[in-house]
Amino acid sequence: MLAIHWDAVNGWGQPNIKPYGPLQLDPSTTVLHYAQTLFEGMKAYRDDGGKVTLFRPDMNMKRMNNSAKRIALPTFHGDALLELIKELIRLDRHWIPQEPGHSLYIRPTLIGTQRFIGVAPPTEALLFVICSPVGPYYPNGFKPIALYGTTEYIRAAPGGTGAYKLGVNYAPGVLPQKQAAKAGYAQNLWLHGSEHYLTEVGTMNMFVVLRKDDGAHELVTPPLDGMILPGVTRDSVLTLAREHAAGVKRLPNLPEDLVVSERQISMNEIKEASKANRLVELFGAGTAAVISPVNRIGYLGEDLHIPTGKDGMGPISRPIWTELVGRQTGAIPSDWSVVVSE
Amino acid sequence: MLAIHWDAVNGWGQPNIKPYGPLQLDPSTTVLHYAQTLFEGMKAYRDDGGKVTLFRPDMNMKRMNNSAKRIALPTFHGDALLELIKELIRLDRHWIPQEPGHSLYIRPTLIGTQRFIGVAPPTEALLFVICSPVGPYYPNGFKPIALYGTTEYIRAAPGGTGAYKLGVNYAPGVLPQKQAAKAGYAQNLWLHGSEHYLTEVGTMNMFVVLRKDDGAHELVTPPLDGMILPGVTRDSVLTLAREHAAGVKRLPNLPEDLVVSERQISMNEIKEASKANRLVELFGAGTAAVISPVNRIGYLGEDLHIPTGKDGMGPISRPIWTELVGRQTGAIPSDWSVVVSE
């Protein structure tokens, strides 16, 4: 694991790569009381030739610094941390599975470590990075999931922290998820406001595909309005779809009549589209599952069925997923893939 | 310190009172990533005769269990935990200062301790209680504070966790507080919705006193609508004021024409009352400061001045504070004061 201490007087200390082991934390440590914690999730892939790569790690470093600012934890030099993470991965490269869909999950974490029972900007912090081999999210083909359209609880609100990858966004979602599971749904579909705008799915960003009046496909995702996490997978899906739509880089099997929209979309619009047979697909997007197709939404006591392709994915998500995973694993060369070791 | 482990298979383990010392936490421990933490704040007082008391500790036990349910941490037998806390205080009673305004601050904390990088209900938890001597919040008389009427950030929202004493409610407030301090205000006045309803002050509940058309005093605090922390001091202020207003237990020097309202109150209403000379006082209420008078609110670029009494407190807060502190320290006998040791 990698560990770097910080304090308000001396700034960042010497980075230390050391054997994985427990942290010694005083019971008054601020993170244990006031939730001063943030993290990132990244994956390292190893190809057949043994080459190890990361996927768009600069985005994680940038977001991690934004998260730090939001809860008054120290910021850092993103490129320098990335070099240290690469060093850690090179040392741990024998842990990276080479099987298809496998990777090394990397978890950079930053916590407030001041020993002080008072609510204040921490004067001490610890940045640490741990790793764990992970298998594919869907080892036996895609399994579309059912969502519970959640109106009793929120994930985020304007003026809150939904746009940052902070620990505080996660603990409150566990009970709603448990309740959704009990009712037969895999995840919460977080709805916002009296219009019940769709925001996120569980801990993933969300996309909807609609057929427009002229027959074109519209790929819709909520805008980064302060409530939506700026996901790396979200940005990658949008970028691939936009480059395809603009004719800059056409993706195989993706309809050419694609329109990309970052806009609000309400449950009412989803219901109307469904009635009019204009709802094409709906999916979650995130680092863990990459793309997670949805086949059902429980909403105000009724179940709304969402079309899925015959292998679980729809006509828009499938070609985007293929390109995305190709770029992630390095099978499709791109500058999104950053070499850690040859 | 007191420590009790819990796991999903065996339930609560043997309580252990042991010397204060660091916790050994694996870097993957859930509280460090997903903020599965909640706490309470209580005070133990020691009187001239050496008698040690707690103030309404049953309310803390009840609220702590409610907090636990909200983030899927284990609940516990409140009376049993209270007996253990009393035992801890008896062992640490030499730490309780006897000077006026001093007390032993008690911090029960419950954290998720499962070693697992996944968002789920923790299967392991640790409940611990630590103590620290504290002096009076205002050692040299009351100093009224200035508040920054905060519209850029929120503390809570409907469907969120504002009504629970969870760590997640605190980290996001640090940056807004820092910004308020930079602008010359001591704390945030958290406003809600387009009406800018007043909700809380920093980490305290909030009360306003208005003169009504008929000359009566109205003591207003926002209702427990899911966004407001059900504070022990809040409840105590309301109870004392209501018993006085009903004639059940009159408090010395408190105007008899008191009306108690739990209702929403907007910044516009505050401004109008100020203009009409009907704004009597505004104060925060919480375990740390007990009552914290306010003399100024910065709101949308303007400063609104709030009347304060000549020693900082107003005509309603002063007599309530006197009764409350008397009951807390045991100087005024009441069943709110629970004996720990004679």
TrEMBL record, chains A, B:
The keyword Hydrolase does not apply. It comes from Marasmius oreades (fairy-ring Marasmius). This is Branched-chain-amino-acid aminotransferase. It comes from the Eukaryota. Its EC number is 2.6.1.42. GO terms for biological process: L-leucine biosynthetic process; L-valine biosynthetic process. GO terms for molecular function: branched-chain-amino-acid transaminase activity. PANTHER family: BRANCHED-CHAIN-AMINO-ACID AMINOTRANSFERASE, SUBGROUP IIII AMINOTRANSFERASE. Keywords: Amino-acid biosynthesis, Aminotransferase, Branched-chain amino acid biosynthesis, Pyridoxal phosphate, Transferase. The modification N6-(pyridoxal phosphate)lysine is found at residue 165. It holds the Pfam family Aminotran_4. Its cofactor is pyridoxal 5'-phosphate. Belongs to the class-IV pyridoxal-phosphate-dependent aminotransferase family. It catalyses: L-leucine + 2-oxoglutarate = 4-methyl-2-oxopentanoate + L-glutamate; L-isoleucine + 2-oxoglutarate = (S)-3-methyl-2-oxopentanoate + L-glutamate; L-valine + 2-oxoglutarate = 3-methyl-2-oxobutanoate + L-glutamate. It is an enzyme of class 2 (transferase). One of its GO terms (cellular component) is mitochondrion.
